[in-house]
Specification:
- About 35% of the residues lie in helices and about 20% in strands.
- The chain has nine helices and nine strands.
- It has a nine-stranded mixed sheet, with helices on both faces.
- Helix 1 crosses helix 4 and helix 6 runs parallel beside helix 8.
- The longest helix is centred in the middle third of the chain and has 25 residues.
- The two termini are about 30 Å apart.
- By secondary structure, the chain is of the alpha/beta class.
- Helix 1 links the parallel strand 1 and strand 2.
- It is an enzyme of class 2 (transferase).
- It catalyses: UMP + ATP = UDP + ADP.
- This is Uridylate kinase.
Length: about 240
């Protein structure tokens, strides 16, 4: 039986920490290959995929030095860390047989294209994966906010926030075995219950623009495909 995706175009938000695997920092090659394999599965279903990547796995190594820095300078360093991750992700995708393009919100012509909305949408329509690097290009904004912005600019059907936990729970499932996963939540419920789904600015943007968010675990085998097929995986946060 053919599998019909529930979404035509998605924005996947990957944290930099997701690329570390069990390492304390940096990029774990096996982990990045496993993530790319999941992305390839949904691309093969005909789904258009945009990705916003964080930089925590690289930036945490310089965080102690950055603690006394000017905030804007530290944020620009973090943006450059996301570009490094984007290049690593693109390389792994190329080796897996995917065609990927890196677009950076900071100008780095030798290694990445500048972010151009029309060009990015063209790439998506051609079946290429577009990796959006350098956040919004502005300090004081997180990569969660960048994901919300790019998701809206690309007219995606849903934003998928990949985490280490398979959804949003009533409590920390690692500490409380009785914690229950929410199947669905409204934005207002998530706010009133103080559930940290994502950065508050990004969350407000998604709510105001009616961009639904699905929180799921990228480390659960086949989870991304199940999300794209509309199955009961993770937690859907909706209006």
């Amino acid at each position: 039986m053919s599998q019909v995706p529930a979404y035509k175009r998605i924005l996947l938000k990957l944290s930099g920490e997701a690329l570390m695997g069990d390492d304390s920092y940096g990029i774990n090659r096996n982990t990045i290959e496993q993530i790319v394999a999941q992305i390839k599965d949904v691309v093969d279903l005909g789904v258009q995929v945009g990705i916003v990547i964080g930089g925590g796995n690289i930036f945490r190594g310089v965080a102690p030095a950055a603690s006394g820095m000017d905030r804007a300078t530290a944020d620009y360093m973090g943006m450059m860390a996301t570009v490094m991750n984007a290049l690593a992700l693109k390389d792994a995708m190329t080796k897996a047989g995917l065609i990927a393009r890196v677009q950076s919100a900071l100008t780095m012509q030798q290694i990445a294209e500048p972010y151009v909305r029309g060009k990015a949408m063209q790439y998506l329509e051609e079946g290429k994966v577009v990796i959006f690097a350098a956040g919004t290009g502005n300090p004081f904004f997180t990569t969660d906010t960048a994901a919300a912005l790019r998701g809206m600019e690309m007219n995606v059907d849903i934003m998928l926030k990949a985490t280490k936990v398979d959804g949003v729970y009533t409590d920390d499932p690692k500490k409380n075995p009785d914690a229950v996963r929410y199947q669905t939540l409204t934005f207002d419920e998530a706010i009133s219950r103080n559930l940290k789904v994502m950065d508050a600015t990004a969350f407000a943007l998604c709510r105001d623009q009616h961009l639904n968010i699905k929180v799921f675990s990228i480390f659960k085998q086949g989870a991304l495909t199940r999300v794209v097929l509309g199955e009961d995986e993770g937690t859907l946060v909706h209006c």
